[in-house]
Amino acid sequence: MTTVALADDHKLVRQALVDLVNSIDGFDVIFDVNNGQELLDQISKGQMPDVALIDINMPIMDGYRTMEQLALHYPQVKCLALSVEDGEEAIIRMLRLGAKGYLLKDTDIPQFKTALEEVIFRGFYHSELVSSTLLRSIKRPIKARTGPPIHFMSRELEFLELVCTELTYKEIAEHMNLSPRTVDGYRDNLFEKMGVKSRTGLVMYAIKNGLVKV
Q1: Domains in the chain: ranges and CATH
Q2: For residue range 23-74, what is the model confidence (pLDDT) as tens digits?
Q3: Which of the residues in the chain have pLDDT under 50?
Q4: In sequence order, which ranges of the chain are alpha helices (DSSP H)?
């Protein structure tokens, strides 16, 4: 059973989401809360969900700050942003902070179900909205970098090429004949080199800077 947590300050919306998630075979809501701080408090008490659905506009702790804290302290929780905001800035910001997908609250039920299933089995879910937003961002002119150029080892470049596919990190490790821990090391080193915080950030950086071809 895949466990789910919900953070949304609109009670009617939250209850509807609880009922919807619980109606999907294999998924169970273990708690729902009013804001990000309450979400973190529940997790700290041992209520660790597999997936967290997070609204952006919440009191006390909004979705951005919540996502930042989850990525830092509970990276094993797969997070999906769920919002009424369809602006590029909100989408890119949540993905860079570590969200595995971004859904609008008017998403239809089949797509919502698909998002939950894919974030578990593939590690992420990119809707048409997210894909088109990423493409627009990638196509913008690249600003000139300041500071010394970044140098990459051949194995890091190989890892980057695989990150830009649909392979999971475990599958990437098998493809490269490396242990998952070694692959995690490549990922974390590249996070630091590139100044990004998520797989989406790696992909965007690699494509924008011509490190991989799509």
Answers
A1: 2-137 (3.40.50.2300), 154-208 (1.10.10.10)
A2: 999 999 999 999 999 999 999 999 999 999 999 999 999 999 999 999 989 9
A3: 142-147
A4: 11-23, 36-44, 63-73, 88-97, 109-121, 128-139, 154-163, 169-175, 180-194, 199-208
Q: How far apart are CA 84 and CA 177, in angstroms?
A: 43
- Measured CA to CA, the distance from residue 58 to residue 14 in angstroms comes to 12
Tokens of 148: 């010394």
What's the CA gap between 162 and 153, in Å, rounded? 15
- Residue 84 confidence (pLDDT): 87
Angle at 51 (CA atoms; ends 91, 99), nearest 5 degrees: 20
pLDDT at 10: 92
Are 76 and 26 contacting, i.e. CB atoms less than 8 angstroms apart? no
What contacts 160, CB < 8 A, 6 or more positions away?
Answer: 152, 190, 202, 206, 211, 212
Of 211, 180, 25, give the one whose Cα is nearest residue 117.
25
Q: Are 81 and 56 in contact (CB under 8 A)?
A: yes
Determine the residue type at 16: A
Q: How many Å separate Cα 2 from the centre of its chain?
A: 17
Q: What is the pLDDT of residue 180?
A: 87
Q: How confident is the model at residue 142, as a pLDDT?
A: 46
